[in-house]
Amino acid sequence: MNKLLQVDFHYQGPFGEEMTQMLDGLAQSINHEPGMIWKFWTENQEEQRGGGIYLFEDEACARSYLAMHSARLTEMGIRDIRGIILDINQPLSKINKAPL
């Protein structure tokens, strides 16, 4: 069963186009993570938050990615990492045009 992974953390930037340019290689590499279907990159410059919402094939892939990604972020000096794995109510999500 597909699982959503929501990750966010305190992030001081860069944001917008500068973030896009800086993290393009990382974005490309995420496409090769086991079980990853898609990712929405999230950012909030005003609140100094970054993160993403991912769809994984199953819970094992989501948990594995969360562990690896949390370690990578910690190595980059990022703290206050929140990661939540969630089930999807597919019938209701389809009503609201979720990309499932």
From TrEMBL:
One short Pfam name that applies is: ydhR
| Superkingdom of origin | Bacteria
What InterPro entries does the database record attribute to this sequence? Answer: Dimeric_a/b-barrel, YdhR
Q: What is this protein called?
A: Monooxygenase
List the SUPFAM superfamilies hit by this protein, alphabetically: Dimeric alpha+beta barrel
What is the protein's species of origin? Ferrimonas aestuarii
Could you confirm whether the keyword Oxidoreductase appears in this record? yes
Query: Which Gene3D superfamilies does the entry mention?
Result: 3.30.70.100
A GO MF annotation of the entry reads: monooxygenase activity
**What keywords were assigned to this record?**
Monooxygenase, Oxidoreductase
